[in-house]
């Protein structure tokens, strides 16, 4: 069976737990004092879903405002995006809206977005009502997950859902190019040549 | 050092008395607070020790001194590394020198124009000195910016362990950005054989930026640079990169013809 390879990107305010979620999922590790991300981290994991397998290449980005100006360098060609907010921080939730808007207008047309309300182990300090978050995501037609990178709650499910939605959204391409691919592995990233020749500078 | 005035201690302490009330300033201060204890979480001095307060004071003073630039993530690493080796006042003024005289400031401006410049120049040098690796990178759409951004924003203080960072500073003060290019090329040379075997962009990127670096653990990375029967240290690595010969004319020519784009926020 062919493996679908795809790039996903983590987005969200600083210190909401983007790196922690990626690290928990890929390495099952949690560090209480995660270091701040400058630029990006690269993580990768092969996910088995009922329909096939997906290799998630995670580009984990920095959260500070200044880095936001170059975020498009990272989500370019991404098939999926994980937008993270911290349930104990109202401001981080407000930023989710603008990330969704930006992705819908700037990113790949069929990009799959999921939202994570992280740090759900800190229920007592919660600032965003669960129903509010759910209602918001329902309107946007985006799946919402309560996650805790600390306990691992919801992390596996979220990435599985992301992988299977990406698989569904891109399986057309898998069928077409899968026949020609070597080693049964194909790359779903859009024809790289065209993407790259027209653009100057920036990364990816 | 012209930017290191004789009354530098007084000026530094006066900066701490300056009061700024603006939304922009508050944002910077907020971000500094967030980053204080998560720059070197394994080093007590910077988590529960006096280093936290020193770091806060130096960064705050810098934001006041360079209000237009403000605080950007990455500066925290340089400040910690400086504080590890010198006193607070000197750390502050050395930061100013690095930013202004050595133009690290350009890297931190909106949309990081200096970073783009340095990365493009690095790519030129790779194409001249390591053509095989360069074309391998191009074929797989690996760009220097994808892996060198934090290294170039922090002049490698986010990579090199803090106790060895004095070697980084010494080389940087002596050779400026040429040291940075040389050091990057040294790393690439040592990874070249492994990189040429990889045919997947993410595999290459995670070889250059292994997951352990996410938690400041550069030991495994250093091991991956090691040749057979060699015991490598960061000091040796820096020393060997200083011995590297690159024709400075390539750099001068590039910079002469380069027009940096400055963006307005």
From TrEMBL, chain A:
Biased composition (Basic and acidic residues): 186-198
Name listed for the protein in its UniProt record: Ras-related protein Rab-21
Keyword Nucleotide-binding part of the UniProt annotation: yes
PROSITE patterns cross-referenced by the UniProt entry: ARF (PS51417), RAB (PS51419), RAS (PS51421), RHO (PS51420)
InterPro entries: P-loop_NTPase, Small_GTP-bd, Small_GTPase
Entry keyword Nucleotide-binding: yes
Keyword vocabulary terms for this entry: Nucleotide-binding
SMART domains assigned: ARF (SM00177), RAB (SM00175), RAN (SM00176), RAS (SM00173), RHO (SM00174)
Gene3D superfamilies: P-loop containing nucleotide triphosphate hydrolases
MF annotations from Gene Ontology: GTP binding; GTPase activity
Lineage of producing organism: Eukaryota, Sar, Alveolata, Ciliophora, Postciliodesmatophora
Pfam families with a match to the protein in the record: Ras
Region (Disordered): 173-204
Automatic annotation (TrEMBL), chain B:
Domain Rab-GAP TBC: 2-176
Example of a GO MF term: GTPase activator activity
Sections of the chain in a coiled coil: 181-208
Keyword Coiled coil: yes
Family matches, as Pfam families: RabGAP-TBC
Tagged with keyword Coiled coil: yes
Record's keyword terms, sorted: Coiled coil
InterPro entries named in the record: Rab-GAP-TBC_dom (IPR000195), Rab-GAP_TBC_sf (IPR035969), Rab_GAP_TBC_domain (IPR050302)
Name the UniProt record assigns to this protein: Rab-GAP TBC domain-containing protein
Native source species: Stentor coeruleus
């Amino acid at each position: 069976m062919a493996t679908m390879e795809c790039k996903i990107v983590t987005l969200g305010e600083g210190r909401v737990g983007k790196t922690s979620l990626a690290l928990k999922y890929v390495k099952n590790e949690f560090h209480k004092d995660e270091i701040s991300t400058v630029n990006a981290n690269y993580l990768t994991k092969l996910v088995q879903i009922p329909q096939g397998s997906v290799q998630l290449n995670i580009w984990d980005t920095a959260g500070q405002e200044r880095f936001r100006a170059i975020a498009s360098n990272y989500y370019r060609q991404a098939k999926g995006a994980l937008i993270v907010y911290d349930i104990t921080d109202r401001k981080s939730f407000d930023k989710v809206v603008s990330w969704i808007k930006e992705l819908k207008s700037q990113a790949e047309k069929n990009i799959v977005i999921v939202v994570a309300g992280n740090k759900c182990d800190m229920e007592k300090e919660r600032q965003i009502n669960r129903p509010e978050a759910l209602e918001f995501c329902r309107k946007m037609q985006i799946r919402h997950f309560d996650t805790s990178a600390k306990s691992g709650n919801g992390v596996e499910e979220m990435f599985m859902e992301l992988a299977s939605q990406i698989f569904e959204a891109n399986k057309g391409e898998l069928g077409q190019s899968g026949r020609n691919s070597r080693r049964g592995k194909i790359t779903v990233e859009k024809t790289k040549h065209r993407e790259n020749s027209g653009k100057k500078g920036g990364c990816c | 050092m012209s930017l290191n005035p004789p009354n530098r201690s007084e000026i530094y302490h006066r900066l701490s008395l300056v009061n700024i009330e603006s939304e922009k300033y508050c944002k910077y201060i907020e971000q500094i607070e967030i980053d204080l204890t998560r720059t070197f979480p394994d080093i007590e001095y910077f988590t529960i020790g006096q280093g936290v307060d020193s770091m806060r004071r130096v960064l705050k003073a810098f934001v006041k001194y360079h209000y237009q630039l403000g605080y950007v993530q990455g500066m925290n690493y340089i400040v910690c590394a400086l504080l590890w080796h010198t006193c607070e006042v000197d750390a502050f003024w050395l930061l100013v020198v690095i930013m202004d005289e050595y133009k690290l400031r350009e890297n931190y401006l909106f949309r990081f124009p200096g970073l783009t410049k340095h990365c493009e120049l690095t790519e030129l040098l790779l194409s001249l000195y390591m053509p095989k690796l360069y074309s391998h990178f191009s074929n797989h759409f690996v760009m220097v910016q994808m892996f060198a951004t934090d290294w170039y924003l922090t002049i490698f203080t986010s990579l090199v362990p803090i106790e060895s960072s004095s070697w980084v500073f010494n080389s940087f003060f002596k050779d400026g950005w040429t040291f940075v290019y040389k050091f990057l090329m040294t790393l690439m040379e040592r990874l070249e054989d492994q990189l040429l075997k990889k045919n997947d962009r993410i595999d290459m990127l995670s070889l250059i930026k292994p997951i352990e670096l996410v938690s400041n653990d550069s030991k495994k990375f250093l091991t991956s640079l090691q040749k057979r029967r060699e015991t490598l240290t960061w000091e040796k690595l820096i020393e060997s990169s200083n011995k590297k010969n690159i024709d400075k004319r390539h750099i001068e020519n590039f910079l002469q013809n380069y027009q940096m784009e400055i963006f307005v926020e």
